[in-house]
Every structure is written in structure tokens, then in C-alpha cells.
């Protein structure tokens, strides 16, 4: 589409932010009282709280509770403009981005496009696996999961049945561990009543991790505890194993083991989601832009990158910061102040990552946390870690309404041991690996 | 699909219920302690509370809060079986229904398939109008509504702009009146902040009613008050007018008036949704099955019909009962007891409709209610009617969780004058009546 985007010209410097994840949203908020026009472009009209997508997928939380429409979150900010569009390319010489709704001029461009699932070039795997990067992914996985069980009711053949009831999760990071735990809770507390007719001992949950430990990057204590917790909850953990291939029905591990499943959840690493048009020399490993300590993209004066898509090499983090919420949030907040400093003729301040630690939840009263506090690191597990995890995640949500709603839902689910949002609305991913045979011969009418 | 549905044979009489709306759900619950096997078949795995769909469509309520998965609502009921399927035909001689998952034998068959939008044979209208009969409809309308406004930001041409910002609602019953009121509230309280760049005086809401009054069937006082309220809220009400044609862009009224809109909401009457296979003589006007005072379909011993799909002619209701929740609920409850009586060799009890009155909400503190109480009828309006409407609808929800969630959301929305769920997830209905031109010439980059 040619033409120009229709947007007010305020006669102020225009900061165009591409992507409203943790970094982009924090930056937009940080620019609230700076004399610039803030234009946020995103392909969705809402910010999604990615760390809780697995709970949406497992019927524990409503999608509504973890999204915040940008126009609501930032609606009171007078210099804020939002456009629902995708950015297709950047022309840094003309200082223009090309979008699906036309061209848009910028004075400062900030790329906060985040990361996307990395299938390392395996197109067959990419086509057959499900991912957990967006709200639509989470809802589609919820629908698939529930539809599998509805379809399983009609099956007699043991292998066909297992293909629907068994789940393979690839990747032993927080998402993989939390997903495995949540599926195990459904198996223990929810499905036995919902699917009385099925033998739930047939439902296997496999977690495949390429390295020797789960939650790589957390403490050895956290890794060991998460493994012990998952095993206690009946999750089959495959360490030092990779999924070599998956055709929608059979997952073959590097160990030679074959797992039959129609639902393989890919949580095994991400790659940057760059925008076309910048100098290829600005792009580093993992498709992340090389940025300096001010998040400025290498080779550009007025183009910045934040969060997952930015590769800032520091002494403490020679391979860049972890691709999680905290670095993005902190970089977004600092960049807002730095743009104000730039406009005021002051020097920008360098970024220093304040690592507050990390945590993962596994199930009811089960979590692990490495908390950094005044230079000391504490390792929590069990109920205390679980409460800490819950509190941190509730407080991190974007608005009060979400916080109240999520806290209420968690309290309700905890008390009732229930996950009540198990309805199928909208698209069900078609059954992979061929259709399910009807069990005419074995049926009892 | 041939073959038989795989389901336990309990050696008890099997009651197959087709459709889990108000009537089907009430019947299933009513059979909890009756020595029968209850099999509920529905194309969704949840009960949807239809009277609040318009609030889902206007971002006031989450879909999650007005649906109840059948397996959760009835999971503790030992004789309850659910199958996610559609019934394709009935073979009353063999006592079998053909479904998308195979054949299913029944001893008693209860049709509770409800009603669907009636376009009176106008295929062009049907293709271009949006309806509000399902949760998917409501979410799609919400997406369309919000996407319209996002797209409108790029438009300069006045007619194109109005085609996106204007809404035409056809039908002045409760759904039409409530929808018009909810859109008016978005215009007054939510969109002015979200869409500062648009002139919201351009947003027109038209309500087209074929007869001389709104809320036909309610008291004259309620009709007059709802008209006055809607006018006060800036809704343009067209009485004694019909939409003769709609091509996705231009709606032509019977008065000759033309209204430009890409969003025409059809709330103008329903028709039964029967199942193939029964004797055509059993089918009455409006595609409703003739039933006797025990909801037994004319000409059949063990086939019943409930609610919207049933036409029970009585002295008080010579044209059948109104197609709303209460008759369906009451018939469902009674039929459960009557089936128990049949099995016990007792006589069935005839149905007597207990009309508790009717109500409709228009906006903040604005509602009308005709309440029947010990033979007296009271007419309420304003704040009192609005509180009564809210209380009745919260209590009518299927489970405690929904009641708490809806009450909390309404209290929050009331206090904040906000409707916070304005995100676009999933399918956006493509723009009707051709694409929107980009305003290249008029754009300011």
C-alpha cells in the first residue's frame, strides 16, 4: 500500500516505537512528559503478558485478564498515538518506515519487535508444532487440548488414543517447565471428573530438554528441585535429548526414542524478529541488533532497539542480556529518560541491568525462585517460592483490573482445585497426521 | 460418518438431549437423580448465556464470564454424558439419531435446539449482516467494531468514514434496544479517549423497528420509556420502518431512507432450528414443533421439544410461548420431573407458564422492567429497574464464579465508566462492500 499514514503533525520530534511488548510499552510510558509525539505501531491492539500465556492455554486464566489494550493503558497520555499495523521495512536515509497502512516519518525509531519461536530451519517441525508466543497461540492450544479429549472419547485403538492424550513439550526453560506442570494439574484434578469415561493413566506428559538440567541459567538448586517436582507430578522428563523430527504424529528423539502425539508444544528457544531495511552489519547472532550501552543500533544515530531484539554486549553479559521481561522493561524506561536527555542537550546514561533473579512455578505450592536482594542471592522453593511467584506476577500485570481479576481467579482455582475456563471457542487446529478412524467395530451404541 | 457412537450402555433408559441452551441444561440438571442415562449433544462444549452476548460484543464483559462448560456445570452428575457433535437427522422408527460422530440410540429424545436468526429468505442480507446468536458472533462483532475505528483513523473521505463509524441495528426488541444503548455508552464514555483523533459526532447509531413501538410485548410505559431513554442517549430510532435491502454498504429502509454502514446488526426475529427426520406435519409456524402440554412432539410417543423450538398452544398463549429463557427453563425442569413420572408409571403434569415479567437495560441507570408479583404487575424504570435487571441477570448465571466475575466487572465498569475488554483477538470480519481507499492525497506524514 502506498500513500502516507494519516497522523497529526504536532511539530514535535516524533518517536516511532515498533512493538508494544514489555520494552515498547515501558518506553511509551516513560515518554509521557517528554515533548515528543509517541507513535506506537503493533499488529495487535493490546499488550499481552507473555509469561502467563501457558495458563491461558491450560484453562486457568482468561485471555482477557492478561491483555491490556494500548488505547486503554496509555489513553490518558496526551502525546500517545497508536496505529494497528505491521511495519514492513525501514528507510533510515529518508527516516521513514513503510507499514501496512502507509509510510510514516520518524525522528527517532525504536525497534521493540521481540522474538519469535526458533525452529532452526526445520520447516516440517514448524508446520506441525504448536507455539506459545501470542494470545491466539494460547487459545488455539487450549481448543486443541480440549478437542483432543472430546475426540478421544470415540476411540478404541490404543495408539490413536495415545496420540490424542499424550503431550510432548520441547524445551526445559520456564515456559516448558510451567506448561508441563499445568498439564499435570489438569490430569490430576480436572480431567478425572470431566472425562470419567477415559483412563487418564493413558495421558502422558513428556518434557524434552536438550541439556543436562532444567531451567538452565537458574541455580543448581532450582534446576534440581524443578526436576524433582515434575517427576513427583508424573511428568516424564527427557534430559540431554532433542526432538530430531516431528511429522504431526511421531516425534523422534535424538536418543532414538519415538513418542506418539498429535500435540507437540515448542518452547525451545527464540530468535529475533527483525524488520527489513537496516544495514546487515547491524545484525548479530540470533537475529538481534547490535546496540551500544544506550540501546542505539550500531551504525545509526537515531535508531534504537530494545529487549529481546537488542544485543548489548557487556562484561557481565558478553552474549547479551537474557531474552526475558526485565531487561526489556528496564531498557524501555531508561531509553525514555535518555531521549529526554538527548533533546535537552544532555549526555545519555548507560544501561546497567538490575538482575532481580528469576523464578518458575511448577504447580500447586510448587515453584522455584532465585531472588537477588542487596547483593545476596536466596534460593526459595515450595510454598514460599510459589507465593513469591504469584505475588510478583500479579504485581507485574499492567493494570489494577487485571491484577484483581488474576488474583481472584488464582485464589478460586487454588481453593477449588479447578481450572474453569475449559471451553472451546473459535478455531480448533485440525488433527495432525491424518484423520482419526472411527471405532465402528468396537462401539457400543 | 457411519458407525456407532461409543458410549457406555448403562442398562437404563437413555434420554438424549439435543442442545444445551437454557432448556436443555435445565432438563439435564432436573434428571440428576432419575434412573436414566442423560446424553447431551451440543456443537459447543459450553452453555452460553445469550441475554448478555451484547455486552461481550461491546467490550463490557469477557466471553469467559458468560459461558459454562457443560462438563464443569454437570460434571458431578453421575448419569450425565456429553458429546461434542451435531445431530444431522432423526430416525424415530429405529429410535436413533445420526450425528457427526456416529449413530446414537435413544429411549427418549428431547429437541432443545433453540432458534436462529430469521432473514426471511433474503440471502444478500444474511450474507452481509452480523448476528448475535453465539459467543463467536459476539467476539466477531467486537473485533469488527474496534477494527472499524482503527481503520477509520486512516480515512479522509466523509462517506467512507461514516460507513465505518455508523451502525444500523435492525429490530427493536430487547437485544436491539440493549445493543443500541451499549454502543451509545461506548460513544459517550470510552471512544472519546481512545479515538481522540476522530470526531465522534460522526458516529451515528440507528435502531430500525418494524412496528410503532420498541419492546413490543412489554408494557406501554416500558416501550415509551425505552424510546425516550434511547433518544436522550442520541440513538436515532426509526419506527414503522424496515430494512428492505442491505448490500454490505447501503441499507435501504422501507421509508426510502438510505443509511451508509459497513456494520448492520440483525436482531429482528428468529426462526426455529429443527432437525431433519421428523414428520413434516409435526412442524408448525416459525419452524417450531407442535407439542402438547407435556412438551411431547405431535405424533410421537417418546420425542419431546423444549423452549424456542417448541410450539405449545395454550389459552393464554395461542401462538406459543415467547422465545425467551424463562419458558425454556421452566419446561426443562418440568420435563425432567415428567420423565421420572413416566418411568414410575405416574401421569405427567401439564406445563403452566409462570410469567415473571420482562426487562431490558438501556444504559447506565437506565432500564425498564415489567415485574409480575403475586398477580400484580409493577412497572419500573430508571435506577431501580437497572438494579433489578442487574440482580436478576447475575443470579441467572449458571455458576458462582460467573456471578462473582460479572458482578465485579459491572461494578468496576460502573465506577470507572469504562469497558475495558476492547481488544481484537482472532478473526476480523473483512470489510464489507469493497475495500477502503487509502487517503494518500490527504495524508499528513
UniProtKB/TrEMBL annotation, chains A, B:
Domain of life per record: Bacteria
Domain FAD/NAD(P)-binding: 14-332
Classification via InterPro entries: FAD/NAD-bd_sf (IPR036188), FAD/NAD-binding_dom (IPR023753), NDH-2 (IPR045024), NDH2-like_C (IPR054585)
Assigned keywords, A-Z: FAD, Flavoprotein, NAD, Oxidoreductase, Transit peptide
Catalysed reactions, semicolon-separated: a quinone + NADH + H(+) = a quinol + NAD(+)
Record-annotated membrane-spanning stretches: none
Similarity comment text for this entry: Belongs to the NADH dehydrogenase family.
PANTHER family linked to this entry: EXTERNAL NADH-UBIQUINONE OXIDOREDUCTASE 1, MITOCHONDRIAL-RELATED (PTHR43706:SF47), NADH DEHYDROGENASE (PTHR43706)
Protein name according to UniProt: NADH:ubiquinone reductase (non-electrogenic)
Organism: Hymenobacter nivis
Amino acid at each position: 500500500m502506498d500513500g502516507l499514514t494519516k497522523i497529526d503533525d504536532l511539530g514535535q520530534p516524533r518517536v516511532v516505537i515498533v512493538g508494544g511488548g514489555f520494552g515498547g510499552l515501558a518506553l511509551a510510558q516513560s515518554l509521557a512528559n517528554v515533548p515528543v509525539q509517541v507513535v506506537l505501531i503493533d499488529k495487535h491492539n493490546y499488550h499481552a503478558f507473555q509469561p502467563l500465556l501457558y495458563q491461558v492455554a491450560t484453562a486457568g486464566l482468561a485471555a482477557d485478564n492478561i491483555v491490556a489494550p494500548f488505547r486503554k493503558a496509555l489513553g490518558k497520555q496526551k502525546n500517545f498515538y497508536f496505529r494497528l499495523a505491521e511495519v514492513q521495512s525501514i528507510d533510515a536515509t529518508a527516516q521513514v518506515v513503510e507499514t501496512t497502512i502507509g509510510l510514516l516519518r520518524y525522528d527517532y525509531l525504536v525497534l521493540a519487535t521481540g522474538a519469535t519461536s526458533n525452529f532452526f530451519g526445520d520447516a516440517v517441525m514448524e508446520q506441525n508444532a504448536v507455539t506459545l508466543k501470542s494470545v491466539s497461540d494460547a487459545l488455539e492450544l487450549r481448543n486443541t487440548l480440549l478437542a483432543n479429549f472430546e475426540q478421544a472419547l470415540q476411540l478404541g485403538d490404543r495408539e490413536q488414543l495415545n496420540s490424542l492424550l499424550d503431550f510432548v513439550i520441547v524445551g526445559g526453560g520456564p515456559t516448558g517447565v510451567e506448561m508441563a506442570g499445568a498439564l499435570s494439574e489438569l490430569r490430576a484434578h480436572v480431567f478425572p471428573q470431566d472425562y470419567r469415561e477415559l483412563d487418564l493413566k493413558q495421558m502422558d506428559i513428556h518434557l524434552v530438554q536438550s541439556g543436562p538440567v532444567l531451567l538452565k541459567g537458574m541455580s543448581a538448586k532450582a534446576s534440581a528441585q524443578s526436576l524433582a517436582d515434575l517427576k513427583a507430578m508424573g511428568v516424564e522428563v527427557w534430559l540431554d535429548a532433542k526432538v530430531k523430527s516431528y511429522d504431526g504424529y511421531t516425534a523422534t528423539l535424538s536418543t532414538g526414542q519415538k513418542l506418539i502425539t498429535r500435540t507437540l508444544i515448542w518452547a525451545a528457544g527464540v530468535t529475533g524478529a527483525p524488520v527489513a531495511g537496516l544495514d546487515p552489519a547491524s545484525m548479530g547472532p540470533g537475529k538481534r541488533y547490535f546496540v551500544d550501552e544506550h540501546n542505539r543500533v550500531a551504525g545509526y544515530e537515531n535508531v534504537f532497539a530494545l529487549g529481546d531484539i537488542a544485543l548489548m554486549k557487556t562484561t557481565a553479559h558478553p552474549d547479551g542480556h537474557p531474552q526475558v521481561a526485565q531487561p526489556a522493561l528496564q531498557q524501555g524506561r531508561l531509553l525514555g529518560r535518555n531521549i529526554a536527555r538527548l533533546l535537552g542537550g544532555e549526555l545519555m546514561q548507560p544501561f546497567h541491568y538490575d538482575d532481580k533473579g528469576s523464578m518458575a512455578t511448577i504447580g500447586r505450592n510448587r515453584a522455584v525462585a532465585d531472588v537477588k536482594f542487596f547483593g545476596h542471592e536466596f534460593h526459595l522453593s515450595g510454598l514460599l517460592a510459589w507465593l513469591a511467584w504469584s505475588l510478583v506476577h500479579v504485581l507485574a500485570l499492567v493494570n489494577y483490573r487485571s491484577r484483581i481479576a488474576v488474583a481472584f481467579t488464582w485464589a478460586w482455582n487454588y481453593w477449588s482445585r479447578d481450572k474453569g475456563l475449559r471451553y472451546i471457542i473459535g478455531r480448533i487446529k485440525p488433527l495432525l497426521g491424518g484423520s482419526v478412524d472411527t471405532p465402528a467395530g468396537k462401539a457400543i451404541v
